[in-house]
Amino acid sequence: MPDVVFTVDQARSMRDQDVPGHNRWHPDIPPAVTVSPGSDIRVECREWTDAQIGNNDSANDVRDVDLSGAHMLSGPIAIEGAEPGDLLVVDILDLGPVPQQEGGPAPGQGWGYTGIFSKQNGGGFLTDQFPDAYKAIWDFHGQIATSRHIPGVRYTGITHPGLFGTAPSPELLSRWNTRERALIATDPDRVPPLALPPLEDSVLAGTLSGEELAAVGRDGARTVPARENGGNHDIKNFTRGSRVFYPVHVPGALLSGGDLHFSQGDGEITFCGAIEMGGFIDFHVDLIKGGMATYAVTTNPIFMPGNVEPRYSEFLSFIGIGVDHDSDTNLYNDATQAYRNACLNAIAYLEKFGYSGPQAYLLLGSAPIEGRVSGVVDIPNACCSLYLPTAIFDFDVRPSASGPVSADRGSCAVSS
Ligand code: ZN
Fold this sequence. Notes:
Layout: E1 3-6, E2 33-35, E3 40-45, H1 60-63, E4 74-79, E5 87-97, E6 111-116, E7 134-141, E8 144-146, E9 155-156, E10 160-165, H2 170-185, H3 210-219, E11 226-227, E12 230-231, E13 243-247, E14 255-261, E15 271-277, E16 279-288, H4 291-294, E17 302-304, E18 315-321, E19 323-324, E20 329-330, H5 335-351, H6 357-366, E21 370-375, E22 383-389, E23 413-414
Parallel strand pairs: 1-3, 2-4
Antiparallel strand pairs: 3-16, 4-14, 5-13, 5-16, 6-7, 6-15, 7-8, 7-23, 8-9, 10-12, 10-14, 11-12, 13-17, 14-15, 18-22, 19-20, 21-22
Bound molecules: zinc ion.
Zinc ion binds at residues 48, 162, 259, 261, 274, 276.
């Protein structure tokens, strides 16, 4: 087993670990550990909300989740000799839920969850259609996930980290804050908000305290979006065997991350749409000196997808176009609207088999579905498609002359 360079006791909050992690991006958060290029390392992670969500049948915890302390990240890990302009090479050797634990109150201890955030607290891709909070608990059986809240499906997870990245330079952080504040200023009262500005509440910055911690709270970037340092990509293909090339913006690179996912569909559409868990991830780290300029990797990481993932060979695919069907209004090459419609078409179809809309929405967020940008040039309608693997269902989900087999599919967890 590689050296465990960041340890998490799942019985304690990230705040109470011997070396705490952090929940903002900021160059002044001190490294928890320094490792050499060429090292194999293990990083242990808390579930991204610091385990606010329970293994129960109510979605009240999702409705009321406090997002000011998210994402709880492990790190930063300094890499000896890394300098701005280098590429940090990160191989994902292995990852999974909390090892050897088939029970416990923290996500990752034999179970995980998918949540639909309420429109008032987080929102999601289909928040206008699904404004309330819902939840599904998933039980892990080796690599297989099943849910008492979504019976009739069983699938192999596409296990990956939702979020890893390097620390921003002071200059890069300042640019993020400027441009995100400018976006927020276009509609400051919007629900859900257009972006999340720095927030002093619940800030955690490793071992920093006092005025140094307050300074991170005032300027540190929130961890929700992907940015030039990597961050919350939620790319399901960061599976075992992946190699990611992260731009280095500060001395030591300062790699941090977490938000491990047992599985996720492309788009992570419910926002908390993966199967969320704590656990471990093993990396091999190395450097390409000066690699950013050598390979023109200046704004975002590049990566080679993993070679260990579930194999599904048959899909039922749903198409969406960039039209607002409620008002029959044409939008111009709007791929976001097109993918939203592909999702809504898939949900309407699954409802014919007895699932509720929220159950179908939770399934599309968490199962290994493929989302594709199919056409963005055929004016005015962008076209996107969603590929649903048919083998994840224990009934025949394909269309036929005999019609869908509707059954009592139970209920997902709802809020009171
Ligand atoms: Zn996540």
